[in-house]
Design brief:
- By secondary structure, the chain is α+β, with helices and mostly antiparallel strands.
- The protein has two domains: about 80 residues, Orthogonal Bundle (Arc Repressor Mutant, subunit A); about 100 residues, Orthogonal Bundle (Arc Repressor Mutant, subunit A), CATH 1.10.10.10.
- The protein has ten helices and five strands, in the order ααααββααβααββαα.
- Helix 2 packs across helix 4, helix 6 packs across helix 8 and helix 6 crosses helix 10.
- The radius of gyration is 21 Å and the shape is globular.
- The termini are far apart.
């Protein structure tokens, strides 16, 4: 007689096992992470099960759907129900100003990018805003550019992709869409004064360039490039 553990690995249960893993995970799960849990199930089989799950939730058109986010998969609530969700769950997302949103969009569309190029586009000192975006884990340091002064190079993170529900950087919205999306995903605080960056703090040390966060692509898209 087959025991419960063996029964749980039968093909007909696979889709629901994956569904349960996705349900309890607080972050997007990659196929590799799921594969490590299932052990003897190959990648194509896992992807097929995920595709079937996603199709079922799309067809149901209920309160949440299964999305491919930041290189993994995660259940997401339908945006049209946000107003009711916010009545129950107070947003815990970090506040972000319009100045920070502008800087984030510049980095997203021109990464990898150094601080002087960001400030060239914005026309103001951006040291304080950059530090805040790093504290919010929306951007990270890739390393240093081999030019005089060896300035830090910035790029977006995996968390950035999660916040804006992007599969990867190829799915970047337009700068205007980034601002519109932020209204529902990031609480906005009153406009920061640029005095925040006048006494610019020293730039942080370069992070480990082996960081697993997404955003490593060196292709510049969207925003005009610095000449």
């Amino acid at each position: 007689m087959m025991d419960n553990d063996n029964h749980a690995t039968m093909p007909e249960d696979l889709k629901y096992i994956i569904e349960s893993l996705l349900f309890v995970s607080e972050t997007p799960l990659t196929v590799e992470q799921i594969k490590k849990v299932l052990e003897n199930v190959d990648t194509p089989t896992i992807k097929t099960a995920i595709t079937q799950l996603a199709a079922e939730y799309e067809q149901r058109d209920g309160g949440f759907v299964l999305r491919e986010i930041a290189g993994g998969y995660q259940f997401r609530t339908q945006e049209r129900f946000n107003q009711w969700i916010k009545r129950l769950v107070k947003p815990s997302a970090p506040r972000i100003s319009k100045a920070a949103l502008e800087t984030l969009a510049i980095i997203a569309y021109n990464q990898p990018i150094i601080r002087s190029d960001i400030e060239h586009i914005r026309g103001v000192d951006s040291g304080g805003v950059i530090r805040m975006l790093m504290e919010r884990k929306l951007i990270r340091v890739l390393g240093r550019k081999e030019i005089p002064g060896r300035p830090l190079i910035y790029a977006t993170t995996k968390h950035f992709l999660e916040v804006f529900e992007l599969k990867d950087l190829k799915d970047l919205p337009t700068p205007k869409e980034i601002e519109e999306l932020s209204q529902s995903r990031l609480e906005e605080e009153p406009e920061e004064t640029e005095n925040l960056a006048e006494a610019s703090p020293p730039e942080p040390e370069a992070a480990n360039t082996n960081d697993t966060a997404a955003g490593d692509s060196e292709k510049n898209v969207g925003y005009p490039e610095i000449q």
